């Protein structure tokens, strides 16, 4: 048999067209929200309230002027070693507007002259604590008003506590004050006049302060740290910077308002000694640049947000819960919670309060005197009218008798 093989005709297959690249849809525009927020914040500006606390003579005024590179407060010329010490702690408020690259920052600096200057400093921290609590209370009351468009905010965003460079450790007043302030605001400890200590002494002093802070469970403000960050990312650099700031606490700072030539043709802010210059913005000499970066450049928003979300909310929660605790609370870690607003122990406020009370008392006495005089005049007028009425009545009786007499004569 012959096998027949079928032959199939091969046809050429057409080439397969390459798939078209997917078209990318145009952006919706939500990515522009940060730019909108930036524009709004740039136009509105910002608020920052900072409290400086510590003994007199530690350079608080000089530090504030050096920090903002302008003279916010002049040194008190009457304060010297021969002037009498203040028996009470005052609270002074310095307000200023700083503008940089078309951005305005409204700064409030709270100074506390007279703190820790006396032999008996019992409850010297009370005016500071009262001021912070009063500002929380004032802001909470403004939020409870029907119209809240304009609110005056003096809540303290950062407390810079200046420590005397003794080289030994913290004094009891420092520990107690820092305990109470740390629960109400962002506390940042500072070693003042760090150029009075040698490098080994400063290192030992910092170590002792850290040990006391940890043992006494004093909460200080630390930059936020996260572990889930890639090593080559820009956030890793920020985290490394935050670790360096934490390792530098408490910050050893030097303040100066004078500039000198550093020998290389550059004028620097420094303190001049016979043996050379101590530069304020030199990291090898002090931690001023690190502290300024923490306060104004890197973590300013964190300080404001932490005040709003942690310290103010804690105070608001305790106030709304109510309670009978007073300023003598045995637990200094809790803010004062009282159903009514307490009076400040600031002598300035006390003087104003006493003057208002005296004025009110004098006004009440004057009104009472006027009322008594008016009452006496009414009594006198009533007596006079009664006398006139009796006289008229007697005349009427006489006339009636005369009328009767005439009528009898006619009969």
TrEMBL record:
Keywords linked to the UniProt accession = Cell cycle, Cell division, Coiled coil, GTP-binding, Nucleotide-binding
Q: Where in the cell is it found?
A: Bud neck
- State the residue spans of region: Disordered: 1-30, 323-344
Kindly give the SUPFAM superfamilies that the UniProt entry links to this protein. Answer: P-loop containing nucleoside triphosphate hydrolases
Domain Septin-type G stretches = 44-322
Keyword presence, Cell inner membrane: no
What is one GO cellular-component annotation here?
Gin4 complex
Q: Which InterPro entries match?
A: G_SEPTIN_dom, P-loop_NTPase, Septin
A single GO BP term for this record reads: maintenance of cell polarity
One GO term in the molecular function aspect is:
GTPase activity
Stretches with biased composition (Pro residues):
16-28
Coiled-coil residue windows: 349-409
Which Gene3D superfamilies does its entry note? Answer: P-loop containing nucleotide triphosphate hydrolases
What PANTHER family does the database record attribute to this sequence?
Answer: SEPTIN
Which family would the database say this protein is a member of? Belongs to the TRAFAC class TrmE-Era-EngA-EngB-Septin-like GTPase superfamily. Septin GTPase family.
- Official protein name in the record: Septin-type G domain-containing protein
**Protein species of origin:** Naumovozyma castellii (Yeast)
Q: What is the organism lineage in this UniProt record?
A: Eukaryota, Fungi, Dikarya, Ascomycota, Saccharomycotina
